[in-house]
Structures are given as structure tokens and as C-alpha cells.
Amino acid sequence: MSLPITRCGVLASGSGLAAVPLLAACGEESGEVDVPPPPASGTALVATSDVPVQGCAVLAEEKIVVTQPAEGEFKAFSAACTHQGCLVSSSKDGVIPCTCHGSEFSLADGAVLKGPAEAALTEVPVEVRDGVVTATER
């Protein structure tokens, strides 16, 4: 029986310890990415003026992406792409893009618009206080 050759299969067939670190390149399947814990309620995230209408701003340290799908409407999501955990990118183009493998997510609800990701981004509850997008409790 002939089995298909895959990158992970080739890496796994290596001998010795040298092959072990290479297996990390095989990534998880879509939807199995570790999502960072949400920020504490009351945490100031970003000024509303730093989030473009129909765009998003990525907060790399917090691993959160804040969006403004319509003027004055703000949403936030985990910035870890559900495909393999790459950080999504900031955008003014009407989507949350992941430039690692081309996935795109909705600004309004984090839903997948274009794969290879199959699962939506996890929402982080926020509100606007004095011109700043702030984390809130669920």
C-alpha cells in the first residue's frame, strides 16, 4: 500500500534527536490553536482613533485585534489565527487578514471569510470609555 508523502511524515521518519525539533514545523490542525487569556476587565487596549473604520489594529503584546466594522462600533478578538496560530495583521481593507497562509476573518464577528482557517477568532468583550477601547467582563 502506498501512503502519501507529507512534510510531517518526512520529518517524522528522520532518525535521532535532530528530527525532534523539526516536528514543531508541522503545526496544529485548524481550530486547535491555543488562545491567550483575555485581558482583565478595565484594561485600556487602544485609542479609538488608532482603529480605522472598516479596518483593524493588532495589539501584538496582548495578542488582541481590535476592529471598527462601522463608524463608532468596536469589536475585539484573539489575534491568534485559528489555522496555525500566526498573529493576524492590521488592515484598512475591510477584513482581518492573516498573512502567514492567507486566511481572512470578519471585522464584525471574527468568522472565517477565507481559509485555510476553519474556526472563527475568539471574541474579547470590549466597550469604549473616553475614546479608548477597554476590555470588559463577559
From TrEMBL:
| PROSITE patterns in the cross-refs | PROKAR_LIPOPROTEIN, RIESKE
Establish whether keyword Signal is in the entry: yes
Answer yes or no on keyword Repeat. no
Q: Which CDD domains match?
A: Rieske (cd03467)
What is its cofactor?
[2Fe-2S] cluster
Q: Which UniProt keywords apply?
A: 2Fe-2S, Disulfide bond, Iron, Iron-sulfur, Metal-binding, Signal
**Which positions make up the signal peptide?**
1-18
Q: What is this protein called?
A: Cytochrome bc1 complex Rieske iron-sulfur subunit
Cited function: Iron-sulfur subunit of the cytochrome bc1 complex, an essential component of the respiratory electron transport chain required for ATP synthesis. The bc1 complex catalyzes the oxidation of menaquinol and the reduction of cytochrome c in the respiratory chain. The bc1 complex operates through a Q-cycle mechanism that couples electron transfer to generation of the proton gradient that drives ATP synthesis.
In what residue span(s) does the Rieske domain sit?
43-135
